[in-house]
Amino acid sequence: MVGNPQDVQRIILESVLSTLNPGVVIVDRSSPSLVYEIYAAACKKGWWFIDAPVSGSDIGARQGKLAIFARGERSVVKWLKPLFDLMGRVTYMGGAGCGQSCKIGNQILVGAYLMGLSEVFVFAEKAGLDLRKYKGAIRGGGLDEQDQWRWS
């Protein structure tokens, strides 16, 4: 994976664009700002373009449990599913840019979750609760053993 948007732009639009034949499939996970530009260039060249950002952190990547938000031609996403299955779970999101929009929404949700988690422990501490007991008490009320967040 190439993650830096400037590198993706340079590699795809300035190098690869001039060398590949029609029918190529490009899967991009880099940046919402490039999705439409790469999509337009891919269509002109007769390529298939799949916008497929991921969520799940380093842990999810190592365990093959990433959430993959794919957009593009449905049949191409379906054709790529065995590859995506090696990395995690793919969800077809629809038209151009939908994968990146889903990723942004997911990041908002993760940020809100982390803020809420932080606030609840600040509250518990200020309320005089034993944080270890509190953690154990709330763990069964929505956070289970499969939760990706690690308690210390």
What's this, in brief?
By secondary structure, the protein is α/β, with parallel strands linked by helices.
SSE blueprint and pairings:
Blueprint: H1 5-15, E1 25-28, H2 32-45, E2 48-51, E3 54-55, H3 57-63, E4 66-71, H4 74-87, E5 88-94, H5 98-126, H6 131-139
Parallel strand pairs: 1-2, 4-5
Antiparallel strand pairs: 3-4
Helix pairs in contact: 1-2
Structural description of this entry:
The chain is α/β, with parallel strands linked by helices. It has a domain of 100 residues: NAD(P)-binding Rossmann-like Domain (Rossmann fold, 3-Layer(aba) Sandwich). The protein has 6 helices and 5 strands, in the order αβαββαβαβαα. The strands form 2 sheets. It has a 3-stranded mixed sheet. β1, α2 and β2 form a beta-alpha-beta unit. It is elongated, with a radius of gyration of 20 Å.
